[in-house]
Amino acid sequence: MHCSPSEQAEKRPEATVVPPPRGRGLEGRPRRAFKTFAAFAFMALALISPTTAADAPSPKAAEAPADPRFDETVAAAGALPHLNALIVARDGKVLLERRFRGPDLDRPVNIKSASKSVVSALVGIAIQRGVFTGEDQTVGSLLAASIPEDADPRVGDITVGNLVSMRSGLETTSGRQYGAWIASRNWVRDVLSRPFVDVPGGRMLYSTGSTHLLGAMLAKASGRNLHELAREWLGKPLGITIPRWPRDPQGLFRGGNDMELSPRALLRFGELYRNDGVMDGERILPEGWVASSWTMRTMSPWNGNGYGYGWFTREARGHDVKFAWGYGGQMVYVVPDLGLTVVTTSDSMPRPRGDGHIDALHALLADSIIPAVADDPAALAPSQEEHHGESHEGGHKDQS
């Protein structure tokens, strides 16, 4: 599997050796000098310990008391070895918060390709604010200088709507192509130089490169970087922290991968969509954007899920489910007719394709969480969860 540089384990600092004091040997020094040296040595050992601050267990955040209806859910979730955190809210009230392992619920974590849903929200706000002219604005209107001379002339006609729905028509940068793409010197030009394998607006071609183009277009049109836009347009009104995340070789923040949000911040983001773009009485997303985002415009050939504007769609026990999906199990599920928002964060280290974790999360929602809140669990449609393995498009090898 190809892993981006940011996803490779960071090297620990090399050990720092504290030299012995000059002059007489340690045994000949006064006791006070010995204590001083021992204190410095202890500090040095602490600094070179294999356990860094990032690895140390985070203090457990205060969790909402679990509703007794979720006893079985907690047991089932706790048995999933890769699941770090689970939050369940209905009609805005948190019914279950549980950190099983990993960082606490307020600490930002890499949400992988769930970042694409965040970029989709920024696109909607950009249209509302006049930064974008609309869903039909073209790549050529903003990124003409980045289009290679030998590129297919149709590249400039690809629209914002094509990109946010994964229907650019261009060869994907994901899957087997991901490693070569992130190794290129200019990610934007690399995407725009790719051949067409379908017409713009055609079939779904899952590609992190498509969302990266959207990020580049947002930066160009606004004159600000993607991180600044995310903080101002989403972070401040939602009251959530959005740290910086990795950039491409030209300094553009990655569009569609590696953003970091805490589980509780993801819940706020999901609630924003459940409430049709309004949070705490303030409209943040333009009216109609949530409906557009949740309208199925194409279908994944890999897993059968529908896809709208940065959101997947499926059905669970007779209820429509909309969800943001990041590699490893960074999920935001919204079940609109039940007023349900569910967040999971998981270990995002590379795992064998088809390890079953994503299927287990879908099943947790369908077979445990939805029955727990349903008025009549016996009347629910039968569960139809099937094993597809963890796969976006292209085998999901980009770890996004």
Walk me through what this model shows.
With 400 residues, the protein is of the alpha+beta class. The chain is built from 12 helices and 12 strands. The chain has helices spanning 31-47, 71-78, 115-128, 140-143, 160-164, 178-183, 187-192, 208-222, 226-238, 263-274, 289-294, 357-373, and strands at residues 83-90, 93-99, 109-110, 260-261, 278-279, 282-283, 298-299, 306-307, 312-316, 319-326, 330-335, 340-346. Strands 2-1-12-11-10-9-8-7 form an 8-stranded antiparallel β-sheet, with helices on both faces. Helix 2 (71-78) packs antiparallel against helix 12 (357-373), helix 3 (115-128) runs parallel beside helix 8 and helix 3 packs across helix 9 (226-238). The longest helix is centred in the first third of the chain and has 17 residues, at 31-47. Mean pLDDT is 85; it is low at 1-60 and 392-397.
N- to C-terminal separation? 12 Å
Low-confidence runs (pLDDT<50, min 5 residues)? 1-60, 392-397
How many beta-strand runs?
12
Strand order of the largest sheet: 2-1-12-11-10-9-8-7
Kindly report the average pLDDT value.
Answer: 85
**Protein structure class:** alpha+beta
Shape: globular
Q: How large a portion of the residues is in β-strands, by DSSP E?
A: 5-15%
The level of helicity is 25-40%
Number of helices: 12
Major beta sheet summary: 8 strands, antiparallel
Order of helices and strands: HHEEEHHHHHHHEHEEHEEEEEEH
Instruction: Kindly provide the radius of gyration, computed on alpha-carbon positions and rounded to a whole number of angstroms.
Output: 24 Å
